[in-house]
Design a protein that fits this description.
The structure is a homodimer.
Chain A (H helix, E strand, L loop, with lengths): L4 E3 L1 H7 L2 H16 L9 E5 L2 E10 L4 E9 L13 E6 L6 E6 L1 H19 L6 E5 L3 H13 L5 E5 L3 H15 L3 E3 L3 H5 L4 E4 L18 E4 L12 H6 E5 L2 H7 L3 H5 L8 E4 H5 L12 E5 L4 H14 L4
Parallel strand pairs in A: 1-6, 7-8, 7-10, 8-9, 10-11, 11-14, 12-13, 12-14
Antiparallel strand pairs in A: 2-3, 3-4, 4-5, 5-6
Chain lengths: 318, 318
């Protein structure tokens, strides 16, 4: 009788390097754009202090399907637990056999960082040198690591957090590892000054970046807005920008554009398309060095399944 | 750091006796009827040869939430695998922490048998002596075991299967254990003759039981129909009967009543309500000894979560 394997977080860290996660997420986005992905909208169940979601998907070209189960409890830090924790169930499409169950808290952080880096690599000006990061939680940290891989000319990093301690901790932990000076800034405005790429990873419900701080040509990777009512950018920035989402329906409902769309400050026609469409050449990405580009990530089950597949292939299960 | 525990099938078999599963399912149905259950509709994803489903639920009174991931691949027997295999992820509501991952193939069979027995205990005439079972797959077998607990006066069992070998195997395996004679019948008509309780567990898409074979007073527990297009009873039986579902919306879409409702042979008003409403005394169940009663099971995530909770309490995790 075949056995389901259970994969602990430590094994995930060993078997899933960031570079391979980026490649896996790129393939998943390409599959989606080519119509080779089946992914119903997430199911969200409310809980005390937060919620949990069931995120199923099937990637026929990867020969694998699965469901991620993930929570969001914003006040978990007080209890010494991560805000977001996840379990990923991987399924053999031909039989439905549960191949593996993967502890996927680290995988979730990694696949989100991978999507951000992929978007930046695809949409930012190729010679981008200065990276600004707003928010220094788990995603601020992971996006910094993934952007190091996405930006070959990266020379300067500035970071800001509402909790300044968190930003100093990122500097202390990652400066030696990356070999790049990390400047902790006192406010968002000083952080984004002269930046080529701006990554937003805050839980904000009002704009953190104002339009008049932002020069032409900047690329934004927006991670924080993943639920209706959340936003990080002044809508005036979005109106200057060429905007891409990870998924049109989910992105318009809960991503960076959801508030301005609801307020009538942005129209669905103002959104250029999905990142995957740029990757497969169906849509043009950045059209000039002066253009502002925006990628809004809400997080897709296909990213999780694709990263899980990397691990299962290494273990010989897939 | 807290660890998620992984519970193998063998441990489930030890920790979850059928009698406790029936009690847990009863509590879950009561909670639902009292408005203490949060359960969005299942998400179904098509796969080659079958499909898989994500079934989330939250039971506030049990202080637990979770998601069951389960497939349905009708031709799996050819590959030496069960048709239905499942994994259950159990979540702590206050934090979203994944308390446990449970191998839930056995649990799924058990909780379905528990719902069937609960319905029979609630709706059949108390002195019922003869049980007929149509279909001798996993559910035929489990329903026989659970009905032994539900029917204190059980004296006779008859069983039929399209694959007669399966029925003989049930007789061989369970007759000694139950201490009751099991008669293998050549066809559905001879099986249901004089039965007080009829349990249907076939994958049929046309009626298996005809109206003129059925006397007044019989109770039906219908398990097989769990998808649009499936049915096991002649619609004329349903028109004579007092009908209860596990869940109104899901039951009308995919349970025993779905085909006759679609054909206009039955109206939504012809359905008396949910089993849970009878359990809490909100609706009357059987109203006379001459009445035919029908329970249609489609399977609810709250049954899985409630059974998972029994296991976690025994392990001290809940």
């Amino acid at each position: 009788m075949r056995q389901t394997i259970y994969i602990r977080e430590e094994q995930v860290k060993e078997l899933l390097p960031l570079s391979e996660a980026i490649e896996a997420v790129e393939n998943a986005f390409r599959d989606k754009a080519e119509g080779h992905a089946i992914m119903p909208p997430k199911l969200i169940v409310p809980l005390p202090n937060g919620d949990f979601r069931a995120m199923p998907a099937y990637l026929p070209k990867q020969k694998v399907a699965g469901v991620k189960v993930v929570n969001s409890h914003p006040n978990n830090r007080e209890r010494g637990l991560p805000t977001v924790m996840a379990i990923l169930v991987m399924i053999e499409p031909e039989t439905g056999f549960p191949l593996a169950v993967i502890e996927a808290t680290y995988l979730t952080a990694l696949r989100t960082a991978a999507a951000g880096a992929l978007a930046t690599r695809t949409l930012a000006r190729p010679n981008s040198q200065k990276l600004a990061i707003l928010g220094a939680g788990t995603q601020g940290r992971f996006q910094l690591l993934s952007h190091k891989l996405a930006l070959p000319n990266l020379e300067q990093v500035s970071i800001w957090s509402l909790d300044e301690d968190l930003a100093w901790r990122v500097k202390r932990d990652l400066e030696p590892q990356l070999g790049i000076a990390i400047e902790v800034c006192p406010n968002p405005q000083s952080t984004v000054q002269d930046a080529d790429v701006i990554v937003t990873t805050t839980p904000s419900r009002k704009p953190v970046v104002q339009n008049d701080w932002v020069s032409d040509g900047v690329h934004f990777t927006c991670i924080g807005a993943d639920a209706p009512g959340k936003q990080e950018l002044d809508p005036a920035i979005l109106r200057r920008a060429r905007i891409f989402l990870d998924d049109m329906a989910q992105g318009m409902e809960s991503g960076e554009v959801n508030v301005p769309l609801n307020q009538g400050l942005l129209k669905p026609e103002d959104i250029a398309g999905e990142l995957g469409e740029v990757l497969i050449g169906k849509k043009e990405g950045r059209t000039s060095d002066d253009e502002i580009t925006v990628f809004s990530s809400t997080g897709l089950a296909i990213q999780d399944i694709a990263c899980g597949a990397v691990i299962l292939r290494k273990l010989g299960v897939l």
